[in-house]
Amino acid sequence: MRKPLPLLSSHPGGRSALTCRYRCGDACFHDVPNPTDNPELGAVIASALSRRTVLRAGAVVGAVGATGAFGVSSAAAGPGGSDVPGGAPGLDGRPARGLRFTPVAPNTADRVTVPQGYDQNVVIRWGEPILRGAPEFDQNRQTARAQAMQFGYNNDFLALLDLPGEPHRQVLVANHEYTDENLMFAGYDPARPTREQVEIAWAAHGLSVVVVDEDRRVGRLTPVRRHPLNRRITATTPFEVTGPAAGSPLLRTSADPTGTRVLGTLNNCAGGTTPWGTVLSAEENFNQYFANAGAVTDPQAKARLARYGMSGAASTRKWEQFDQRFDVTREPNESHRFGYIVELDPYDPESTPRKRTALGRFKHEAAQPRLTADGRPVIYMGDDERFDYLYKFVSDRRVRRGDSRAAREHNMTLLDHGTLYVARFTGDSPAAEIDGTGTLPDDGEFDGWGEWIPLASGDRSLVPGMTADEVYVFTRLAADRVGATKMDRPEDVEPSPRTGRVYVALTNNTDRGKAGKAGADEANPRNANKHGHVLELTERGDDPAATRFTWTLLLVCGDPEDPATYFAGFPKDQVSPISCPDNVTFDPHGNLWISTDGNALGSHDGLFGVAVQGRERGRVRQFLTVPVGAETCGPVVQDRRVLVAVQHPGEVDGASVENPASAWPDGPGGLVRPAVVAVWRRDGRDIGV
Ligand code: FEO
Ligand code: CA
Ligand code: CA
């Protein structure tokens, strides 16, 4: 029998209300948590063009001349292409190497649709046993104990790592962002969850580490059950808090008077991999798990909660009824212990994962390092909320090579010592030419320069009126004070391993330009931005530690027939429509791959490749689409396989276990289950060549 669902209203974009509630805590229905009046992009000044020209010249020289540390190629030009766009785009019609496949047409099929000549397998589904002693998944007999040994729910970020000493195997690491109990439990009553359901949800959050076997001929992957590296991290796994705010009174609770030990990680969205062999995972919409912020009366505490989107009474999942740490009136500092980048050593199943306070606390979307020429990691990070900011962290310490214990221990301190910055963008076109419609300004590009504003360095605050601990724990408030630029939901941020240029996915912001809200600026040039854009940032002198950069919009997304779209100047009749860019990665050829979340063009979400160099720059080509209700996550693109996480399939308003909206992945009658999919060429050759 169908259970009545709680009353949910529809999202203004392409997402279902169920996804809004369970994934983001209805972020889009609440008022924007950034009420500050930051400076908008300045009007152009007379010296602007010359300044920009100087910066750009420096950047290009740097890109060509730099030697990436640790063998990272610094080749600036793509195959057959020049480094800068221009010339005669698309003349020969041949897509860039790596993107030579027949694009998948936009569609609403309830499956993963891949290009002609490609094949796929489901690598692992929610609930599959991965640890010794784990039972087979049984939806009618699920327990928290079983779930803690099985693959978690709603896979998002994916990493595939080498497994030295075991050829034809890789280590798969997956984030499990959130649970949707309506689609997990038959007869679920959101008003009265049971303890077992709540504890299953705790165990279904977090991360999984699973070794996978590679097929020798094609890209198929299959999990190795009970491999000694297999591991589950959940909402109750002990974490160590490290970095400058560790032990701060702001982080102490009755269960942890030291402020250094937290149980669990929540809402792990995207992430990154480090050159020293660890995985970074981003705690995003943690606010939704905490109840009763509306009952807090202290004005400062209330303002801090509000800036992180916390208000109201009961939480959606009612966890506060089962563990009082989720009630902010009873444990006011517990929510301060979520919203971090966490670091996990997947090669040491006994290791304690760390929460890195030096990288700040916000709705972290992802974290991807690039090394400076002298080997210090720089981590780029987005805060995924409408009108929030882009950040980076620059470590003081150099990566130590090798796999000695001393090297590993040293490298596990890299993200505890350094400087945290937030970005301010300035456009180079007159403000009057940025009219909010997406019409290109007279100089033909949405572009300009910018600066990284330091917020704190080690134990030193660089924000007047805030202590260093406050900067690290209330990072959004610190960034407000220094005039950071309000962006259209900065999601995944990834530096190109070839050129060092940094690509920022800005998913959408339908509030841009609304009454009382910031209007269009050159870096966020469309009001009511439904489809998002992709920004390309070039650090001055190609130095990731630089405090100055130039930028340009690579893509202004949407239907190519819509004049308010831009594909780096590539002929728009030759590109795939793309909407709501979210996760980004690079293939071995240097092309950018973009997965989408919330396609507002009527098609299902998907995965797209686009060349960023040479004559093909801007030519977006769709590689796959995902089933009903799903978002495409975690893309990994290797020579012979593409790996995606199909997150929240079937999450459509009104759906439940009894009334599924999708039959994926196991066909009619099967439970809808989030899962990881590998895609490869049937002829066994490399992807897209
Ligand atoms: Fe979990 Fe911002 O996507
Ligand atoms: Ca411009
Ligand atoms: Ca995301």
From TrEMBL:
Protein name per its UniProtKB record: Phosphatase
Q: Give the superkingdom in one word.
A: Bacteria
Q: Where is this region: Disordered?
A: 74-95
* Feature: compositional bias, Gly residues: 78-90
PANTHER family assigned to the protein according to its UniProt record, in alphabetical order: DUF839 DOMAIN-CONTAINING PROTEIN, SLR8030 PROTEIN
Instruction: Supply the Pfam families for this chain.
Output: PhoX
Q: Which InterPro entries match?
A: PhoX (IPR008557), TAT_signal (IPR006311)
